[in-house]
């Protein structure tokens, strides 16, 4: 792919640079919301499964300055763009990207990361009409949601945290898998506007724990009312690099 097929974009009010294909999948709000949902102690090592060109990885590294990050991506082009972004953002001392499939993670990664996060493909083959060229790897999963969650838990340390953003309609499947394997589960709904159903949910949990009720947060609205195009103050704060308020 030549430079004419790649765009240089800015996230978080021009605080983070991102190189991505002009056509096909491009990072959006979900990645920024996922990044905003993360928190941790200095020195923690985060792993993102399916990092793409860095849409969530880079905002996370920008805000959590004392943490290390590893991204996993199976598409060689996206890996190359992510590595270009690492250099452009001067993250080389604490961010790296590995080309791999989540179904074949390195064996020594088991129980290896303090936190694992992901914005996985939302649909399994046959569930939706085939997406446009270049977007299939982002929207169509080659593995089930359960297997994706399994990979996240595999890489997380005991009592480590996993965080995932997904369709609101997938919440039941996510909780069904996590309830017997994790604890301290929290759910954060994302709505377009007040009164609407949550199209996205962020779910976080700790590996291997067996205590605590599921916490359902009030969540947030992206817009103050249906049909408006101006973000809420909370959405603006997050899009400028602020953390999500759990």
From TrEMBL:
E.C. number: 2.1.1.223
Domain Methyltransferase: 43-166
Chain ranges passing through the membrane: none
GO terms for MF: methyltransferase activity
A single BP term in Gene Ontology: methylation
Classification via Pfam families: Methyltransf_31
Main enzyme class: transferase
Source taxon at top rank: Bacteria
Entry keyword GTP-binding: no
Keyword GTP-binding listed: no
Keyword terms, alphabetized: Methyltransferase, Transferase
Name of the protein described by the UniProt record: tRNA1(Val) (Adenine(37)-N6)-methyltransferase
Organism: Ponticaulis profundi
């Amino acid at each position: 792919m030549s430079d004419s097929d790649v765009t240089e974009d800015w996230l978080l009010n021009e605080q983070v640079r991102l190189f991505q294909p002009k056509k096909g999948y491009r990072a959006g709000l979900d990645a920024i919301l996922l990044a905003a949902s993360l928190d941790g102690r200095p020195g923690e090592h985060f792993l993102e499964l399916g990092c793409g060109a860095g849409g969530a990885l880079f905002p996370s590294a920008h805000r959590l300055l004392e943490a290390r990050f590893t991204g996993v991506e199976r598409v060689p082009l996206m890996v190359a763009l992510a590595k270009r972004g690492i250099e452009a953002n001067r993250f080389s001392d604490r961010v790296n990207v590995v080309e791999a499939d989540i179904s074949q993670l390195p064996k020594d990664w088991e129980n290896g990361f303090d936190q694992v996060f992901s914005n996985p493909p939302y649909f399994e083959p046959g569930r939706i009409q085939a997406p446009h060229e270049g977007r299939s790897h982002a929207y169509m999963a080659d593995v089930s949601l359960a297997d994706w969650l399994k990979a996240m838990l595999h890489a997380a340390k005991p009592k480590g945290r996993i965080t995932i953003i997904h369709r609101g309609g997938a919440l039941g499947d996510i909780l069904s898998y996590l309830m017997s394997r994790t604890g301290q589960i929290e759910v954060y709904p994302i709505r377009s506007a007040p009164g609407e159903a949550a199209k996205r949910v962020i779910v976080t949990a700790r590996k291997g724990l067996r205590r605590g009720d599921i916490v359902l947060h009030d969540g947030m609205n992206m817009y103050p009312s249906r049909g408006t195009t101006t973000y809420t103050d909370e959405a603006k704060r997050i899009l400028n690099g602020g953390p999500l308020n759990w």
